[in-house]
Design a protein that fits this description.
Layout: E1 4-14, H1 20-30, E2 34-40, E3 43-51, H2 52-62, E4 70-79, E5 87-89, H3 110-117, H4 160-167, E6 188-190, H5 198-207, E7 212-215, E8 220-225, H6 229-239, E9 247-249, H7 253-259, H8 264-271, E10 277-281, E11 307-311, H9 316-322, E12 334-338, H10 350-356, E13 363-367, E14 379-383, E15 386-391, E16 400-412, E17 422-431, H11 441-458, E18 464-468, H12 474-482, E19 487-491, H13 493-504, E20 513-523, E21 529-537, E22 542-548, E23 551-554, H14 557-561, H15 563-573, H16 583-587, H17 590-602, E24 606-609, H18 612-622, H19 634-643, E25 657-658, E26 664-666, H20 669-680, H21 685-706, E27 713-717, H22 724-736, E28 740-742, H23 754-764
Parallel strand pairs: 2-5, 7-13, 9-11, 10-14, 16-18, 18-19, 20-27, 22-26, 27-28
Antiparallel strand pairs: 1-3, 1-4, 2-3, 6-13, 7-8, 8-12, 9-12, 10-11, 14-15, 16-17, 20-21, 21-22, 23-24, 25-26
Helix pairs in contact: 5-9, 13-23, 15-18, 18-19, 19-21, 20-21, 21-22
Bound molecules: zinc ion (2 copies) and fe (iii) ion (FE).
């Protein structure tokens, strides 16, 4: 054949352990091409020959891989034709020049879910069913390359049938490293006494209102029937959890649509391979819910929250917990919350579980496959059909991110809240799973574990460490203790927030942006607590253009837990009194008011802050929405909830900007005054909330227009922009003015995204 050609294709991306070689095999066979495919350390290498048109088609199809794979690049090189026939999959060959990462944990695929339900299949009801397209990866792998012997599946020898499937290139479990079956795989056990198999005992316990610890992919969950208010109340009591919403798991997308509003983007996320928790606007119990009471979570699942965190089953164990046809009815909607007491890291180790979960759960549904590293569920929301991550963890870690410029081998340790760390080298960064708040020994231990695990999986030997500039951050302390001879660089908190978003959007090294970093807390070099920051920023540095006027933060953590204190502080800073008719004044006990007044007058125990998060708290308290919070950002979340759908009315609030100074100062006092006036006139809290959100959005646009000669690209980040209403309004107004607006899409706007910004800011400096 005259048009016969031979090509070598180098495929990079997440292409190992995700069914990529079988996909190549099938594609080549369909196109009648000859050659071979193999894994090496740089990715997947294909040598292939046949008709030129078929080769082009083949290269095209490689760019549309199986769901769990991501192809970053396909490089083609022409070779001399060898006139071979047949196509084969060859074993892994080591080669230099790159690192192929371990894939993330992948949710149960549709093909496996069908087999699970098929009484004729040999894996009918097998709780550990998986294939090349799905199953645990990251959490069961100790080191590279990703092969069974380096995973916790090495504890289980393969039976003859599994060996045959594993060795058959035409089988969908060809080289599936975690392959197993009821004859040779892990075994499920339930500590609940009774007759029947472990799953039916677990279902019965849940139906009876009990609390079950369930060993999943990245750790233990605590589960109970979400439709049973008594069970939910008992779970809150045992976990010592106040109002913080629980996520719920429902058996399928239809069930999710019964309890929440699911648009197409949210549906794709809910059913996708990462299978995160998706925050969805709930259908309220007053007529919105379209299902029988059994299917509807009790109000106490997410009290006061406008959204409901929903996730679908991502392992066979979860599906079986809901029951298959023929089973006695199981629960229809489950609370699924991480197995721990409030604030502790998720429990993942069986021995640890036997002590820590005793007293929390009535029984444990467990198995004998070890989890090597804990990994919480990821959390995302969708704003205007665009993803907004809140927590990037299971299903995403350790997917590498391409960097816009090369960096030396680096470990960035992130911040102290919602900590994640990142390894980077050259043009690639790997972000860890969510580790947690670095305020106790258990979390520091979890940090050690996650950091070492990621170091083994990336093989980066950092010669530089990067930390937040906060002198008392525990993460920064960790970096200094572990640096040895290596350099430790620091990056200012809000600069890191902006650099992270620049990085995920691939802005190049010379780019400059207007960065709006609005959050609760970040250390500023002047010793104040920053958080309402307008920066002219690039990777190497930033200039503070403007910030919210400093007000005293009285009593640090106490002020965060009691928004009424922030309201009183803002009223005081604005020169207003504390009239009794104002809600925060009434919420503050008279003794405390006296102490607070003294503190504010003398500055005792006060730190100056420009925090936008605290301004949201103050307004939430002034509007009588929330005076004391039980979890982070509760006041802002409830203010947003009340504002959604409320009309702005005719009165707008406006923030004046004092431009006589450098940086310019944004004065919140007139907004505080207007809110106080509105409450005095009994304006609805939702209307006040809507006016306040609109005012913040307008402020951003006004400032962006002022500084448009510096840059026309605007970045919105910081935890405050997890607020869907604020993000959506601000983004729309900015785009109307012709700005390019970049928002966090792959990383959270909160401190969970800092590590990437640290890598880039330090890399450029
Ligand atoms: Zn599968
Ligand atoms: Zn087997
Ligand atoms: Fe922050």
């Amino acid at each position: 054949m005259s048009d016969r050609r031979r090509r070598r294709l180098r495929v990079r991306g997440v292409v190992q352990g995700v069914g990529f070689r079988p996909f190549v095999y099938t594609t080549a066979t369909e196109l009648a091409l000859a050659g071979e495919v193999g894994n090496d350390e740089a990715g997947v290498l294909v040598e292939i020959e046949g008709a030129a048109a078929a080769l082009d088609e083949f290269a095209d199809r490689l760019r549309r891989p199986p769901p769990a794979a991501t192809v970053d690049s396909v490089e083609c090189t022409d070779m001399a034709v060898r006139d071979i026939s047949g196509f084969r999959i060859v074993g892994s060959t080591p080669a230099g020049g790159g690192r192929t990462p371990v894939p993330p944990d992948i949710a149960l695929c549709a093909a496996c879910a069908l087999e699970l339900r098929d009484p004729g299949n040999r894996r009918y009801r097998h709780p550990f069913i998986n294939c090349t397209d799905c199953g645990p990866r990251f959490t069961i792998t100790a080191s590279l390359p990703y092969d069974r012997e380096r995973t916790s599946m090495a504890d289980f020898g393969l039976c003859g049938s599994c060996v045959r499937e594993y060795s058959d290139p035409a089988d969908r479990r060809f080289h599936a490293q975690a392959i197993c079956c009821p004859g040779c795989g892990p075994v499920l056990a339930c500590s609940e006494p009774g007759t029947g198999d472990p799953l039916s005992r677990a279902r019965a316990l849940l139906r009876a209102g009990g609390i079950l610890a369930v060993k999943g992919i990245g750790g233990y969950h605590l589960a109970c029937d979400a439709a049973d208010p008594a069970a939910v109340a008992e779970l809150r009591r045992r976990k010592r959890r106040g109002d913080k919403p629980f996520a719920v798991m429902v058996p399928d997308l239809a069930a999710a649509e019964h309890i929440a509003r699911v648009d197409a983007s949210a549906a794709a996320l809910l059913t996708g391979p990462a299978r995160p928790i998706v925050l969805l606007p709930r259908r309220d119990s007053s007529g919105g819910a379209r299902a029988a009471p059994d299917f509807v979570p009790a109000d106490s699942v997410a009290p006061g929250s406008p959204d409901l965190g929903v996730l679908l089953p991502y392992t066979a164990v979860h599906l079986l917990l809901f029951g298959l046809p023929g089973d006695p009815p199981g629960p229809r909607v489950l609370v699924m919350t991480s197995g721990n007491r409030g604030g502790e890291p998720i429990c993942y180790d069986d021995e640890d579980a036997s002590t820590r979960l005793t007293g929390l759960a009535d029984a444990r549904l467990s198995h004998d496959r070890r989890i090597l590293v804990p990994c919480d569920d990821s959390v995302l929301r969708v704003v205007d059909e665009v993803e907004l991550p809140v927590r990037r963890s299971r299903g995403y870690a350790p997917v590498p991110m391409a960097l816009p410029m090369p960096v030396p081998p680096t470990l960035a340790v992130g911040g102290d809240v919602k900590n994640t760390c990142a390894f980077a080298d050259g043009r690639t960064a790997w972000l860890s799973q969510h580790i947690g708040d670095m305020d106790d020994l258990a979390t520091l231990h979890a940090f050690d574990l996650a950091e070492r695990h990621l170091e083994r999986l990336t093989r980066v030997s950092p010669d530089r460490l990067v930390a937040d500039a906060h002198p008392r951050y525990r993460s920064a302390g960790w970096a200094r203790r572990h640096a040895g001879e290596r350099e430790v660089r620091t990056v200012q908190h809000h600069h890191a927030h902006i650099a992270a978003v620049m990085g995920e959007h691939g802005l190049d090294a010379a780019e400059r942006v207007l960065g709006f970093a609005f959050d609760g807390t970040g250390w500023g070099p002047d010793g104040a607590i920053w958080g309402g920051e307008v920066l002219a920023a690039g990777y190497p540095g930033y200039r503070r253009l403007a910030h919210l006027k400093y007000v005293p933060l009285p009593g640090g953590d106490v002020a965060v837990r009691r928004p009424y204190r922030m309201a009183l502080s803002h009223l005081w800073a604005a020169g207003f009194g504390w009239p009794e008719h104002l809600a925060p004044v009434r919420a503050c006990p008279p003794d405390e008011r006296g102490v607070l007044e003294h503190q504010l007058r003398t500055g005792l125990g006060c730190v100056a802050t420009s925090s936008m998060g605290r301004l949201f708290d103050a307004v939430a308290s002034l509007a009588d929405v929330r005076h004391v919070v039980d979890y982070e950002a509760q006041a802002a979340i409830e203010l947003e909830g009340s504002a959604r759908g409320a009309s702005l009315g005719t009165v707008g609030y406006r923030f004046p900007v004092e431009r006589g100074t450098d940086p310019a100062v944004i004065d919140p006092a007139p907004v505080i005054a207007a809110v106080a006036e509105d409450t005095a006139r009994a304006v609805d809290a939702g209307v006040i909330g809507a006016r306040f959100h609109a005012a913040v959005a307008r402020l951003v646009v006004e400032l962006a227009l002022d500084y448009a000669d510096i840059a026309r690209t605007v970045i919105l980040s910081g935890g405050v922009f997890q607020n869907a209403l604020l993000l959506s309004t601000t983004r729309t107004l900015l785009r109307d003015q012709g700005f390019t607006v970049l928002c966090p899409q792959r990383l959270p706007p909160n401190d969970g995204g800092l590590a990437l910004g640290q890598v880039l800011a330090a890399g450029a400096g």
